[in-house]
Amino acid sequence: MTIDRIFGVAKTRRTALALLAVALLSACGFQLRGSGRQSGSQIVGEVHIQDQGGVSILQQLRNGLTAQQVQFALFPKDADTVVILSNEVLSRRVASVSAAGRVREYELLHAVDLLTLRSRDGIKAGELSLDAENLPDPQTVSVIRDYTYDEKDVLAKDDEERILRAEMKEELVRHLVLRIFAGSM
């Protein structure tokens, strides 16, 4: 037996085993992650966003949904999904104090109420009756961050708070986009 013949048989067996494994995986419905990805509009349809009360993240949410290839409806009656944002809260509270009674840490909060209405039984979301019995409760989506405070370095800590608030806004938008998609899957 020559070396070429031994390796040729081993190679043939490996190829046969690999083909058998692929056949078994495809027979059970296995797909590689990310294959067959749907666009945002295929998942939620056309979206209309309503702002109740001057929500500051409206444009960022619109940009986040656009990045997911979501199409927008100009009017609620034309939308498959209506997103209603309200009760935005931006706050800062003292998280801890020193023994001398001076602030050591602050807690930042950015929250917004989200209500998502979806088309049902062939009726567009914007055409659904919105009486108190049929209206679901809004979900509060929030992001909280803590940061240490030093009164000797006020300018740097103000910059840190500003940067944290910008990051919190981005994270809040990501959470909102995920919540909008989660109800449609």
Overview of the molecule:
The chain is an alpha+beta fold. It contains four helices and four strands, in the order ααβαβββα. It folds into two domains: 1-37; 38-182, 2-Layer Sandwich (Double Stranded RNA Binding Domain), CATH 3.30.160.150. 37% of the residues lie in helices and 26% in strands. The protein has a four-stranded mixed β-sheet with strand order 1-2-3-4, with helices on one face. The mean pLDDT is 80.
What is the compact description of this entry?
This protein is α+β, with helices and mostly antiparallel strands and 185 residues long.
Q: Layout of SSEs?
A:
Blueprint: H1 3-27, H2 40-44, E1 47-52, H3 58-67, E2 81-97, E3 103-118, E4 139-148, H4 154-182
Parallel strand pairs: 1-2
Antiparallel strand pairs: 2-3, 3-4
Helix pairs in contact: 3-4
Helix-strand string: HHEHEEEH
What structural class should be given to the helix and strand makeup? alpha+beta
**CATH class identity of the largest domain:** Alpha Beta
Q: What is the strand tally?
A: 4
> How would you sum up the global shape?
flat
* Strand line-up of the largest beta sheet: 1-2-3-4
How far apart lie the N and C ends?
59 Å
Query: Helix tally?
Result: 4
The main pleated sheet reads as: 4 strands, mixed
Beta content:
25-35%
Helix content: 25-40%
Look up the CATH topology of the largest domain: Double Stranded RNA Binding Domain
The total domain count is 2
The name of the CATH architecture of the largest domain is 2-Layer Sandwich
CATH H-level name of the largest domain... which superfamily?
Lipoprotein like domain
Low-confidence stretches: none
Radius of gyration: 26 Å
Mean pLDDT value:
80
